[in-house]
Amino acid sequence: MGRGASLAGRTALLLRAPERAARTVEALAARGARTVLCPLIDFELPADTTELDAGVRRLVSGGYDWIVLTSITTIRALKQRAGQLGLELTVPAATRLAAVGEASARAARTEGLRVDFVPADQSAVGLVAELSLTGGERVFLPQADIAAETLAAGLNERGASCDVVVAYRTVDSPAAPHRRLTAAVDVGQGTRPADAEVWEPARLAGDLDQIDAVLFTSPSIARAFASVAGTGLAGIAVAIGESTRAELENLGFARIVTSAEPTPASMADAWESALRHGPEH
């Protein structure tokens, strides 16, 4: 099983759909753990894509100095909408691309996009502080409908002119079929569905005693889980990063551990660490 089957006999709950879970399921299985899936949120294009379409067309025609990518889901949305417009998602040589973190950077490179900048502090705050700006740059900032204003406000304050566009909406699962994000971005985790048991959300409240750890991969997933199952989790809450950890704390979760990197292996490491030394909170 690898790693000495360090998580043998334990069960993790991953709040994702099977098509986005294969790498995590396999990483946990290599350490002996079983994974149950329960997709709570989904992603879809906005009902009105006028601003998104204008941004995509301006991007591929070289109308921006920078594009800032904040997530793999953003790349999926841009890829899908560009294809629907009959365009190839490209970033011209005169436009530089910044990614908030390495996960987004890897996904961009997989799609053939050149990545010019990733901040040392892989966060919105880090990107605002570290991005090289002289003032007056036009920045394309496609993001989720629920994204914080940190990036736009910070970059505008530094003299940039940001075109902030809703690239996708975060909705309860399942998304509307005609707007659902279906474009795949292969970042080394494959695009095949995971081989794991799938629960309906209604099972969460009654069957969480079967779960040893819940893997939270975004603040929005933390909120969705809390609304369905509450915050009195007996098992360990594994947060993929600092923003997710902060949201779990705000919601009132008590046993939290944070992965050092936004990867399945790092989340498994964090779970193992919590078992050896106890959670952070």
Automatic annotation (TrEMBL):
This is Uroporphyrinogen-III synthase. The keyword Flavoprotein does not apply. One of its GO terms (biological process) is protoporphyrinogen IX biosynthetic process. It catalyses: hydroxymethylbilane = uroporphyrinogen III + H2O. InterPro entries: 4pyrrol_syn_uPrphyn_synt_sf, 4pyrrol_synth_uPrphyn_synth, UROS/Hem4. SUPFAM superfamilies: HemD-like. It comes from the Bacteria. Its EC number is 4.2.1.75. One of its GO terms (molecular function) is uroporphyrinogen-III synthase activity. Residues 23-268 form the Tetrapyrrole biosynthesis uroporphyrinogen III synthase domain. Pathway: Porphyrin-containing compound metabolism; protoporphyrin-IX biosynthesis; coproporphyrinogen-III from 5-aminolevulinate: step 3/4. PANTHER family: UROPORPHYRINOGEN-III SYNTHASE, CHLOROPLASTIC. It is an enzyme of class 4 (lyase).
